[in-house]
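Q: Here's a chain of 250 amino acids. Please give me its 3D structure as tokens.
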Amino acid sequence: MMSEELSIKQNKFNGISVPSIACFHSKDDHVITENYEIVCKRCGVVLGTDNLQEVANESTLNLFHEIEPGTQPVKAEFTKRTHEPKSDVSPFSNACDKLGLPRHCYLEAWNTYSKLRHSTTYSKAEIASFALFTASKRYSIPKSEKEIQDAIRMSFKVKRVPTMLKVFSRIKLTAQNLGISYTVDEKNSECYYLNLYLAREQQNLELKVDFDLVRKKARALFEAMSGTNEAKARKAVQIALGRRGGAFIE
């Protein structure tokens, strides 16, 4: 039975003939095991090892190439473009990691980046700035302009990153035309700027300061003020810390 279903082929390996096994069944009957062995599901013969799995550190996970036990072997021609040295995925992912953005935030940022990158000629730094800033602002994640610029500068290996004012003045109309939503409601905007200034101050506060009390007072002051959300948040935090009008407020 085995002799009828198997054939021995000679492959050259470093100049030496090495026998390899092949069965006469259709390639559609070949499947991958959890140990990445290629097996014929009809006769059970192990035909070799699938060496096309992505194991390099900088490989981009491609769900079309992802396999599970029992699936068909991946054909070589479908994996030729899996490694893309010039892909923006790696530097953008690094920027998100440096900023510590949660998954839902960096996925939205990447979606915005991809749309703008494929449809415009703006620089990578400009598009990344716009995408990261709008996503973090939408989810009230306190990331300052300098933090975003530093992350982009290191990840994309660029010397200069444009200011957010310049980025918005160039990109916002294009983003609207592409159906990209970059605005947030007023409540989210309030949370963003309050979180931003509170987080910045918290890093330098002494342990004896009750930061929860500072946060509570800052929010109360913010709601009683007029002006832009950013100006109100900055002023409210300063007053709550006692830096305007005397000592720390009790």
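Q: Can you summarize the key feature?
A: Residues 143 and 196 are 6 Å apart (CA to CA).
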